[in-house]
Amino acid sequence: MRIRPETHADIDAIRRLNDVAFDGPLEGHIVDGLRAAARPFISLVAEDDGEIVGHICFSPVEVERPDGTRTTILGLAPMAVMPERQKQGIGSKLIEHGLNACRATGTKAVVVLGHPDYYPRFGFVPAAPRGLRSEYDVPDPVFMLLEFESGVADDLHGLARYHQAFSDATS
Questions:
Q1: 67-92 burial, b if ≥16 CB within 10 A, otherwise e?
Q2: What CA–CA distance (Å, rounded) separates 11 from 88?
Q3: What number of CA atoms fall less than 13 Å from residue 90's CA on the CB side?
Q4: Domain ranges (residues) in the chain
Q5: CB-based contact 161:32 (threshold 8 Å)
Q6: Per-residue pLDDT tens over the stretch 114-156
Q7: 170 and 27 in contact (C-beta within 8 Å)?
Q8: What architecture does CATH give domain 2-170?
């Protein structure tokens, strides 16, 4: 298995993978919208014997501080692994490669809405105690932050807003 950037030839397979993994088309629509409009946009696939078995993407998240100033970090979403290939380390490899790609862009931090027992193994911590909250009404433990440099979160107090493609896909 290898992790690599998506290519144009992967688009249909990525959409099918997301449809199967999430039991519907919502996440596939989100990925299509991000691909079309989000910059930076990081999209990686896990390929095994020519088959796409996993996918992850990262897109801009704008943090609006209480004083009205804004900064952009990245958000991990969505991540999908073929149901029959889950719990084989594919998601972990996608996250590790993805976070390295995020570091390479120069971003200071990444956020994720995810399972609080899974993402801390990659360094994510709850964002709320650091002063960062999600635009979505979610329990504090599921909105997490990973700083690439110590102290970055000190400048990220405020509201994190995901790319418009997330809202567009649900309307």
A1: eeeeeebbbbbbbbbbeebeebebbe
A2: 23
A3: 23
A4: 2-170
A5: no
A6: 999 999 999 999 999 999 999 999 999 999 999 998 888 888 8
A7: no
A8: 3-Layer(aba) Sandwich (3.40)
